[in-house]
Amino acid sequence: MATLLIAGGTLFVLVGTELATLAALRAHGDLGVTGLVIAVMCAASILGGVVHGAVKRSLPQGVLMLLLALLVIPVGLADHPWWLLMLALIPTNLLCAPTLAATTETVSRIAPPRVRGEAMGLQDAFTRLGLAAGSPVVGFAIDHSTPAWGFAAAGLGGLLIASSGLLLRRSPAPTPEPAMAESRS
Is 69 within 8 Å of 13 (Cβ atoms)? Predict the structure, then answer.
């Protein structure tokens, strides 16, 4: 369950970041450079994915997710001019592909082979839930403040979801209650 919540938090952050980026570019009249900004975000994600795949031991899913979310929160402080926004988005996007890959790796590692397909389906469902929740929550933050707050909402919302997963991972497993001896009459 913890791994699935972290997966949902990841997609919450990613969709929120994209929405806030588009809103910031629109607010400053820079929609003409949207393709370039998105291309740089994608290139950073690819680079992060290549590095993630090349290292022998990468960071765990939870650590990657926390870094992804923490790095997007302050991006709104640098949302203008457009090139500064683009540069500010590089660190969080370097963690995009690695976080997604680590999620799939974790699900594959912990799910027994006989239920791996079901586990991957649950992962897909939780990522879709993160996507479905991220857009309206971040959109609400943008509509009721500024695009800069959209980045903070994306990061904080993702942290909230993922933290619940991390707390589940840290909590001790419940101990079974001892069976009561039946009295025979």
Answer: yes
Closest CA to 82 of 21, 14, 18, 17: 21
Check if the beta carbon of residue 123 is closer than 8 Å to that of residue 7. Answer: yes
Nearest-angstrom CA–CA distance, 178 and 185:
22
Amino acid of residue 167: L
| pTM of the full structure | 0.88
Distance CA 32, CA 25 (A): 9
Q: Write b or e for each residue in 118-130: b if 16 or more Cβ atoms lie within 10 A of its Cβ, otherwise e.
A: ebeebbeebbebb
Percent helix, strand and coil across the chain, each to the nearest 5: 80, 0, 20
Taking a C-beta distance cutoff of 8 angstroms, is the pair 135, 16 a contact?
Answer: yes
Q: Over its length of 185 residues, how does the chain's per-residue pLDDT go in tens digits?
A: 889 999 999 999 999 999 999 999 999 999 999 999 999 999 999 999 999 999 998 899 999 999 999 999 999 999 999 999 999 999 999 999 999 999 999 999 999 999 999 999 999 999 999 999 999 999 999 999 999 999 999 999 999 998 888 787 776 655 555 554 444 44
